[in-house]
Write a structure and sequence with these properties.
The structure holds two protein chains of two kinds. By secondary structure, chain A is mainly β. Chain A is about 0% helix and about 50% strand. Chain B is an all-beta fold. Chain B contains no helices and twelve strands. Classes of the chains: A mainly beta, B mainly beta. At the A-B interface, strand 5, strand 9 and strand 10 of A face strand 5 and strand 6 of B.
C-alpha cells in the first residue's frame, strides 16, 4: 500500500544533542510537510518542500532544519534540542496538481523525548 | 487570517449516543474543509472532507456539511462506538499549502 513512513516511532535524545527524524513516502507526492504537535495541541506547520523548494514558516526556530535529498525522503534535523522541543513530529505529503491536491496524507509520527 | 474554531472538549458519551462536534472557520477565498482523527499514539488520519459549499463529506458513519452561510463544518454521527474514542481535528486549506487546524476535541465513548 502507498503510504507515509516515519522512523523511528519513538526517539529519545539528550538536551543539546543533535537528532534527525526520517520520513519516506511511496505516494510520489511532490509536497512534503513537517508538523510539530505538542501534547493536547493542534499540529503546527514547521516547513514544507514543494519539490526541491524549501518553504520555512516565519515562526519556525532556526534550531529546526530540513533536507529532502529526493522525492521519497525528507529529514527533520534538530540541531540542539531543548526540553521545549519534546513533541510528536508529523510528516505529511500532498500531491499538488492532482485531484486530491488539497489533501494531506500523514505518517504515524515520531514522538521525541528530550532528557 | 485563516483560522478554525473548534468545540472544546473533552466530550464523553455513552455508546450509541449522538455526536456533534462544532467547527466554524474564518477564511479568505474558498477553503476546503476537513475532519482528521487521531487515535492514541498515532498520526492523523483523514476522516472526511468537503471542497465546496453545500458538499457533504461522509465516512464510517460520520458526516459533515460545508455551510458557507454559517461558515461551519460540524461533525456528526448518529450512534457512536467505543472504537470512535479519539481526538478529532477540524481543518481548512485554501490555495496555499498550509492546513489550519482547530485545537482538537477529545472524544471518549464509554460502554
Amino acid at each position: 500500500d502507498a503510504m507515509v513512513i516515519q522512523n523511528p516511532r519513538y526517539q529519545v535524545t539528550q538536551f543539546g544533542k543533535p537528532v534527525t527524524l526520517s520520513c519516506s513516502q511511496t505516494l510520489n507526492h511532490n509536497v512534503m510537510y513537517w508538523y510539530q504537535q505538542k501534547s493536547s495541541q493542534a499540529p503546527k506547520l514547521l516547513f514544507h518542500y514543494y519539490d526541491k523548494d524549501f518553504n520555512n514558516e516565519a515562526d519556525t526556530p532556526d534550531n529546526f532544519q530540513s533536507r529532502r535529498p529526493n522525492t521519497s525522503f525528507c529529514f527533520l534535523d534538530i540541531r540542539s534540542p531543548g526540553l521545549g522541543d519534546a513533541a510528536m513530529y508529523l510528516c505529511a505529503t500532498g500531491g499538488f496538481g492532482l485531484s486530491t491536491y488539497n489533501e494531506q496524507f500523514f505518517g504515524p509520527g515520531t514522538r521525541l523525548t528530550v532528557l | 487570517g485563516d483560522s478554525v474554531t473548534q468545540m472544546e472538549g473533552p466530550v464523553t458519551l455513552s455508546e450509541e449516543a449522538f455526536l456533534t462536534i462544532n467547527c466554524t472557520y474564518t477564511a479568505t477565498g474558498y477553503p476546503s474543509l476537513f475532519w482528521y482523527v487521531q487515535y492514541p499514539g498515532e498520526g492523523l488520519q483523514l476522516l472526511l472532507k468537503a471542497t465546496k459549499a453545500d458538499d457533504k463529506g461522509s465516512n464510517k458513519g460520520f458526516e459533515a456539511t460545508y455551510r458557507k452561510e454559517t461558515t461551519s463544518f460540524h461533525l456528526e454521527k448518529g450512534s457512536v462506538q467505543v472504537s470512535d474514542s479519539a481526538v478529532y481535528f477540524c481543518a481548512l486549506k485554501t490555495g496555499a499549502n498550509n492546513l489550519f487546524f482547530g485545537t482538537g476535541t477529545r472524544l471518549t465513548v464509554i460502554p
